[in-house]
Amino acid sequence: MSDKFDVVVIGGGPGGYVAAIRAAQLGLKTACIEKWLDKEDKPRLGGTCLNVGCIPSKALLDSSHKYHDAKDSYGVHGISVGDVAMDVNAMVDRKDKIVDQLTSGITGLFKANGVKSFEGFGKLLANKKVEFTAHDGTVTVFEAENVILATGSVPVNIPPAPRTGDIIVDNEGALDFREVPKRLGVIGAGVIGLELGSVWARLGSEVVVLEAQDSFLSVCDQDISKEAAKIFKKQKLDIRTGARVTGSQINGEEVEVTYLDAKGEEQKQTFDKLIVAVGRKPFTDGCLAGDSGVNLDERGFVFVDEQCRTSVPGVFAIGDIVRGPMLAHKASEEGVMVADIIAGHKAQMNYDCIPSVIYTHPELAWVGKNEQELKAEGVKYKVGKFPFAASGRAMAANDTDGFVKIIACEETDRILGCHIIGGHAADLIAQAVIAMEFGSTAEDIALTVFAHPTVSEAVHEAALAVDGHAIHIANRKKR
Ligand SMILES: Cc1cc2nc3c(=O)[nH]c(=O)nc-3n(C[C@H](O)[C@H](O)[C@H](O)COP(=O)(O)OP(=O)(O)OC[C@H]3O[C@@H](n4cnc5c(N)ncnc54)[C@H](O)[C@@H]3O)c2cc1C
Asked: Which residue, by CA, sits nearest to atom 26 of ligand 1?
């Protein structure tokens, strides 16, 4: 087998494996190098997303949601299920099985598409050469017409709470608890902290979330974050903003965390487990030779242009190692774009239309600009909102928390943003993404026929409400 490739991808996460499959589909001789080894030292494709991120966290969120529903919500429907119990081992084993299926599925897709898979470490050398060190230590140097760097990200550690692997853990450890911690601390009220905190709160943990920022979920539209704060409080997620962790002390089987509260006063709190979820940083350690020519920015991200070209012609970088949100779908779409460009096609990505989701219950999802951003930019806009409490389908499902909010340009009616908190927000947001991708106005959605009864009708009604024409609520403003 020749060691010359049209494309060598370093990293087999959702950025890298998607880029490799697309490149191979387009007739390019493609290799993908992936270093991941699982707990049993078995090589795995799929990166953070499939192994310790999106998929396993959603498996646990779904299991814990079903448990919670059976325990607390079935009664409303007249269903009594007696004593509901959770077998945590079965829940975690199910999650592991899903991860197994999906990661080996990528191996199958590589074979089907003719991507050559290499298990070990890849390092970019000068002149688009790639050094591959297999897990047995054998070193080979590949020549590549094009290289795609897709080495992803790793959790940020904070000195006051260093990981111990058993009591103080990161997202990976939090997916593998084999019993429900009685007292669970979470540092960081971001996406990962809220999702993992929710899993264990539903199973009975007393969860305290310590968030250094003074405001809660500042990335969201403020209407959404305020509503989420109210709902999470009811769910007994104790979220403390302005709480700066200054130290942690392991005492036998527990950890005492010291933090400064919003008033600057020192507080102490003891937990059985502590999840550190303060963010992730790009991973490039050992991946770039000193003379590779690839530049990093001041925060350690690989510096790229709009089309993911690095400072070296023929070398691209995608996903969590480059600017933009750290999201699997953003990484994958960059992978497709770059493979298309390498194959000689015109391709670009619309970075203004990348949806974000937090998979708590209710889910939070948004795309485009929020009110704070538009105000800061001085853009004139109008807002339409529709609560799920007024949706027949949501009522039938006993899932009426939240609302859909559509923001449109005052002058042109173009949709500038959509913000949803609700049971199906993650799926509903796709409607707004498609509308925005096509440059739709709020009226375009208002004139579209939606099936009845569906929760999607809330998107329709929010679009109608933009001009004060919602049917199933009293409009604030009428024209
Ligand atoms: C708990 C959690 C939940 C998440 N949930 C979501 C979600 O619901 N939705 C969402 O969109 N995003 C979610 N994310 C984020 C998502 O997982 C990442 O944005 C995504 O995985 C990034 O893809 P990537 O391909 O850039 O990097 P990664 O998935 O990190 O993959 C990079 C791969 O490169 C490999 N690698 C690194 N260096 C080398 C090297 N030198 N040689 C060979 N291989 C190398 C790594 O082993 C890894 O497999 C979540 C993350 C976490 C931690």
From this structure: 319
- Stated pTM of the model: 0.96
Rounded Cα–Cα distance for residues 138 and 244 (Å): 46
For residue 68, give the nearest of 235, 256, 192, 188 by alpha carbon: 235
Classified as helix, coil or strand, 114 is coil
Q: Using omega within 30 degrees of 0 as the cis cutoff, is the peptide bond preceding 325 cis? A: no
Q: Specify whether the CB–CB gap between 384 and 408 falls below 8 A.
A: yes
Is the pLDDT confidence value at 1 over 50?
A: no
- Residue by residue, DSSP assigns 300-349 as SPBP--TT-B-SSTTEEE-GGGSSS---HHHHHHHHHHHHHHHTT-----
CB of 335 closer than 6 angstroms to any ligand 1 atom:
no
Closest CA to 347 of 9, 95, 22: 22
State which of 349, 368, 390 marks the end of a domain.
349
pLDDT of residue 478 exceeding 60 = no
- DSSP per residue over 186-227, as a string? EE--SHHHHHHHHHHHHTT-EEEEEESSSSSSTTS-HHHHHH
Q: Determine, yes or no, domain membership for 163.
A: no
Alpha-carbon distance of 14 to 279, in angstroms, equals 19
pLDDT score, position 158: 94
Same domain, 313 and 175: no
Task: Please report whether residue 161 resides in a domain.
Answer: no
Q: Which tokens hold the place of 240?
A: 């403390």
135 among known catalytic residues: no
- Amino acid type, 396: A
Reduced to 3 states (helix: H, G, I; strand: E, B; else coil), residue 96 is helix
What letter does residue 45 receive in the DSSP assignment?
-
* Binding-site residues from annotation: 58, 122, 151-153, 188-195, 211, 279, 320, 326-329
Token pair belonging to 465:
């409400």
Domain region containing 13: 4-155+281-349
